[in-house]
Write a structure and sequence with these properties.
This protein is α+β, with helices and mostly antiparallel strands and 408 residues long. It is built from ten helices and 15 strands. It holds the Pfam family Peptidase_C54.
């Protein structure tokens, strides 16, 4: 017992020292340069010279998820901290959280320290707390990763975290997202429309629905009876933009994605070192870094969450785009069908004009592919996030193919 307590104390000491080092480092990050260039953050431009405070406010409003410690052991006997292995899972959480903010609060919503926030904001935050009963917690993501061939505590790649989010979203009735992860660098319009266009429920059925449950009929207010409603779309495009390093021919197209109003940024970074990229300035990418270890935060007695540690108030970090590992995943959110149609037009105009295209956008489902079947929630004995209490329940999920390397 004494040895175990001593080991526990040593681990806490190491984590505490690591946390302090990161905080000190963050205080001395290089400030933005004095330039006339525009800074693009998730589809919004900021003129650095005259809108710096507005820019920093926009960045700090993004939910920032980092390593945590002292949460309940994953799976009951697993790790109680994700320090050292959970950075890509945290980046996936950040991308998804941005989609939920756009879905419920809008892209222009802003956060202010110690200011009362809408109830939807608190509910979004609670989806990501480090507890096994929260639908997008580190517990749920790590255990769902077992179905993707990843042991608990093993590092994820961008494609793996995308597949995990797609499967967890099937159990999230409140947010009711359609999550589409492209295959073979190809986005199929027909498949997305099939997944997102859902028939409204009858008035009788709507009356029986719980007040907090979002169904097809109340997602598009004013939708005529019988006309399909649009299920909000989280679109993730995993790519490999080179062999060992990013191919410079993709740089302009990659930056163009951050200008799109539908942008959720990108997942990527360096080998075993993940970042959430939210914009760019010149040839530098701007990112939120999950590599800070903070203590687990739970819901308070009044049902709210102390959100001070979920927003990065330091100047964000930057890296040259050519230092980016070629394995990335782009994210986009289309709340309504017109948003998706607009995104398709932008892709055709800005991405498909290149000789070496970053990805393809096609109208029809490729004939040599297996038939597209919209994902559905598996038949399990419980509902919501609680279904993943053991790895045995992951057997219903098939492993997805990894993304292919683009030819150069």
């Amino acid at each position: 017992v004494e040895l175990a307590q001593d080991d526990s104390w040593r681990m806490e000491s190491v984590l505490s020292r690591y946390e302090n080092q990161i905080t000190i480092f963050a205080d001395h990050l290089e400030e933005f340069p004095d330039t006339d260039e525009l800074v693009w953050i998730l589809g919004k431009p900021h003129l650095l010279k005259t809108e710096k405070s507005k820019l920093l406010s926009d960045i700090s409003a993004r939910l920032w998820f980092t390593y945590r410690r002292k949460f309940s052991p994953i799976g009951g006997t697993g790790p109680s901290s994700d320090a050292g292995w959970g950075c890509m899972l945290r980046c996936g959480q950040m991308m998804l959280a941005q989609a939920l903010i756009c879905r419920h609060l809008g892209r222009d919503w802003n956060w202010e320290k110690q200011k009362e926030q809408p109830k939807e904001y608190q509910r979004i935050l609670q989806c990501f707390l480090d507890r096994k009963d929260c639908c997008y917690s580190i517990h749920q993501m790590a255990q769902m990763g077992v179905g993707e061939g990843k042991s608990i505590g093993e590092w994820f790649g961008p494609n793996t975290v995308a597949q995990v989010l797609k499967k967890l979203a099937l159990f999230d009735e409140w947010n009711s997202l359609a999550v589409y992860v492209s295959m073979d660098n190809t986005v199929v319009i027909e498949d997305i429309k099939k997944m997102c266009c859902v028939l409204p429920l009858s008035a009788d059925t709507v009356g029986e629905s719980p007040p907090d449950t979002l169904n097809a009929s109340n997602q598009s207010k004013g939708t005529p009876a019988g006309r399909p409603a649009w299920k909000p779309l989280l679109l993730i495009v995993p790519l490999r933009l080179g062999i060992n390093q990013i191919n410079p021919v993709y740089v302009d197209a990659f930056k163009e994605c951050f200008k799109m109003p539908q942008s959720l940024g990108a997942l990527g970074g360096k080998p075993n070192n993940a970042y959430y990229f939210i914009g760019f300035l010149g040839d530098e990418l701007i990112f939120l870094d999950p590599h800070t270890t903070q203590t687990f935060v739970d819901t308070e007695e009044n049902g709210t969450v102390d959100d001070q540690t979920f927003h990065c108030l330091q100047s964000p970090q930057r890296m040259n785009i050519l230092n980016l590992d070629p394995s990335v995943a782009l994210g986009f959110f289309c709340k309504e069908e017109k948003d998706f149609d607009s995104w398709c037009s932008l892709v055709q105009k800005e991405i498909l004009k290149e000789n070496l295209r970053m990805f393809e956008l096609v109208q029809k489902h490729p004939s040599h592919w297996p038939p597209f079947v919209p994902p559905a929630k598996p038949e399990v004995t419980t509902t919501g996030a609680e279904f993943i209490d053991s790895t045995e329940q992951l057997e219903e999920f098939d492993l997805e193919e990894d993304f292919e390397i683009l030819s150069v």
